[in-house]
Amino acid sequence: MKIRTKxxxxxxxxxxxxxxxxxxxxxxxxxxxxxxxxFKLLESKARMTAEMVLQHEEELKxxxxxxxxxxxxxxxxxxxxxFNKYQQCVFSLNKIATQIRPEVFFSIDxxxxxxxxxxxxxxxxxxxxxxxGNTYISISEEIPxxxxxxxxxxxxxxxxxxxxxxxxxxxxxxxxxxxxPVSNIVNQVDKLLPSDxxxxxxxxxxxxxxxxxxxxxxxxxxxxxxxxQMQKSFIAxxxxxxxxxxxxxxxxxxxxxxxxxxxxxxxxxxxxxxxxVSEMVNTMEKLLQLARVHSDxxxxxxxxxxxxxxxxxxxxxxxxxxxxxxxKFEIQNLPSDDExxxxxxxEALLVTAFYNLMENGCKFSPEHQVKVRLEFNExxxxxxxxxxxxxxxxxxxxxxxxxxxxxxPGQAQxxxxxxxxxxxxxxxxxxxxxxxxxxxxxQGTEFILRGMENxxxxxxxxxxxxxxxxxxxxxxxxxxxxxxxxxxxxxxxSSCSKADHNINTEQKLAAAVxxxxxxxxxxxxxxxxxxxxxxxxxxxAYVGLAGWECGVAEYPDAMSFGVSHPEFSTVSWTHQxxxxxxxxxxxxxxxxxxxxxxxxxxxxxxxxxxxxxxxYKQKIKEDFKNESVLPSGNHGKEIAEAVYQYSSTDxxxxxxxxxxxxxxxxxxxxxxxxxxxxxxxxxPLLPHWKKPGGLLLxxxxxxxxxxxxxxLREAQVFLLKPGRYLIYLSPSQKSGGG
Length: 738
Fold this sequence. Notes:
Low-confidence stretches: 458-503, 677-738
Strand order of the largest sheet: 2-1-5-4-3
Helix content: 40-55%
Shape: elongated
Distance between the termini: 53 Å
Structural class: alpha+beta
Largest sheet: 5 strands, antiparallel
């Protein structure tokens, strides 16, 4: 169905429906009014007749209808009759009045006044009491004349048909007028050809929805034209940039074949060939980067990264590639909140942009030096300045330097591809970063980058009931033991049920404590320098061990880790605490371990740790007003201290295992692929430490008792090998998280 027909039909149905409802309402209201007035008239006739006749009550006698002759019959279209208490007619205007049913007399007697139908007549009965104490019933009946209703109905039907016809004609006309601009747009689009994409759509009215559509289509045409131009430009540029080096290589090879040369001459030729090949490789890499940037920008993944770290990474890459280059980096007005350093970007692309700006600055600077300054204003908006003492760039050339393969006439002797700044501009446009260039004969050249508001990375959202798709912890096969202990520590607090399998308030709160603290540990792991995969693995293992030991006091049948490892039994927690409170023990234990394992966490994470601890401390105090909270919390602190002491077996001192790797390591952001690390790089369990700590599987005779009490509908149990299980807790409304 065409849009014009559909609009006309919709307009017709809406108008016809509204008019039909209105006319039916008018007709019903008028009909009700006519009937009401008719019965009022009948009631008035009945009362007036009764008052006049009953003044001579003593003269009233029952009428014998058999004595009435036919010649006194009146046309029977109305009548008023009076009946005594014996239902005998004592007065009637029409002597052959129709008979009244007994149930009608009963209703009149009960109600005092009663409306009813008597064959074709509409009637009303009224009950009267005389001064003599007698009761009479007067009935007035008449054939109603509702001809006025018929006239009204006909008038409304005629009006309805006329209006509907006008609506259909008007709707068809106005729908055609409304669709006329669409037809014009279709005609303009039909004229567009792939050979000429410079044409654009035009519309007279600039304020309606179709104008917005035209602007959108024109924007799409701009992108299509740009894509075609980029394709043509890429082919032309590749042909141009590869032709010269290939011609030079071919010429050198031909010259080499024509004459036998010395070893030194051959080495010179090979060095020249290698230089030409390196130039081609560099050109191809930048062309491919440029093609990827312009191919499909929607597929470019954006993640939250620290801005200063991107600059440091680009600086290190440049210095490794060009050791004689010098990059000086400084930060001014560093914000107190580290979150203001986080931006939303594609790390690889933005590092490439910074790298090219630094490389250009060093290349065109007499001292091969560039100064990079990252500064923040009072609103924490950031700006990056790339400054070098290079040659002056005239104003008319500033826009040209961002064109692909453009080379300034004064810098033709410098090696380069002419792609770098064009690639930088494309990357910054994707990230919505504004760039401004200033060049001065005395001060040199400065590239200024300013971030926009929607580029600022907000606070990293808290993880709840979600697992990161790209875990940064890289294990070998054997560290599955660590995973097992970690998940068992989480599992014990969140999914162990008592004998009756009822999840009470304490168990629900324990599950919430574990879920929130594990989310906090994930954030600490992400945002704390030095936590490389093996370090993260140990932290999670020790935290899981603490969760397990907190649950041992709640479930006496569970075997403590210290039973098989006496060096771990350094505190007396084997005693049973009366009215043991598992949430209190978990909250205190996780709080202590957060400070012990992350002593150099940033200010934001420390504040989150404190807020989470106080949140559950207050909730536990409100929900469990008994004496079990304090000793249970102290028990959790003892467990945390014992776990921390036991962690020293990883090395010669507490937490020294953290610094066996680069302390400045920062975990990568964004999705990635998990790959096991080979044993040549990471020996099983305890890499690079001579003294093993003995993190082993807990004996299955105790683990099986716990497995038998879990709610299997909230957990998935995988058999790794006989006697070894991996338990994954899926998010649940009952447990508060997995």
